[in-house]
Inverse folding.
């Protein structure tokens, strides 16, 4: 598929670029996408939740009342989970929620997500550019020229540009990433994926392995 290349003024340049069909034109694999997104979200969980169980609660181990003859239910010590202030029965403990997904599956998932974006006309190619100063106003003006100021956008660069990164971070719906770091979840969780030309070549070298 051939796409036009735009400059940051919002105008088409004389150049066009041919997208690699093995990356942007495959039949999407929904299961690979599911596995990769599931792994990403699972890895975001800290797993530091913790509660005190019966053996960790401070209190006496004396039996509160005799076993029989009181007419009430039998009960143990003050740390029983049945009593207020007692330990938690089957409480949560620190846990690693991380999942493993093979590299080939992850690459297939990213190619599938990018193919979906191309079908939705959600991919834009820009000429390489840089900002003279890290000003949010300058980056917002670029988004406005493409009517993306109120939409989620992901700008993909070949390497992190400090000025562009700082200019975009105050915009809640604008995200800037490096080609080697993008993941399936970020691609699907945005309305417009914007590549600069050199980042496109970098991404193709990564996903064509």
């Amino acid at each position: 598929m051939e796409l036009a290349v735009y400059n940051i003024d919002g105008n088409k340049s004389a150049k066009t670029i041919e997208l690699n069909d093995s990356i942007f034109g495959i039949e999407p694999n929904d299961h690979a996408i599911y596995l990769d997104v599931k792994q990403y979200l699972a890895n975001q969980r800290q797993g530091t939740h913790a509660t005190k169980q019966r053996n960790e609660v401070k209190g006496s181990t004396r039996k509160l009342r005799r076993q029989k003859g009181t007419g009430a239910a039998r009960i143990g010590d003050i740390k029983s989970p049945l009593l207020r202030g007692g330990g938690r029965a089957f409480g949560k403990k620190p846990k690693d929620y991380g999942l493993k997904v093979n590299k080939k599956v992850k690459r297939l998932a990213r190619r599938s997500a990018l193919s979906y974006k191309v079908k939705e006309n959600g991919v834009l190619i820009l000429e390489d550019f840089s900002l003279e100063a890290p000003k949010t106003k300058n980056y917002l003006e670029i988004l406005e020229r493409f009517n993306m100021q109120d939409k989620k956008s992901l700008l993909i660069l070949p390497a992190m540009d400090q000025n562009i990164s700082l200019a975009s971070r105050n915009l809640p719906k604008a995200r800037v990433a490096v080609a080697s770091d993008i993941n399936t979840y970020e691609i699907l969780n945005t309305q417009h994926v914007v590549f600069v030309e050199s980042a496109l070549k970098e991404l193709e070298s990564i996903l064509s392995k």
Summary: The helical segments are 21-24, 30-43, 103-119, 136-145, 162-168, 184-188, 197-207. The mean pLDDT is 93. The chain has seven helices and six strands.
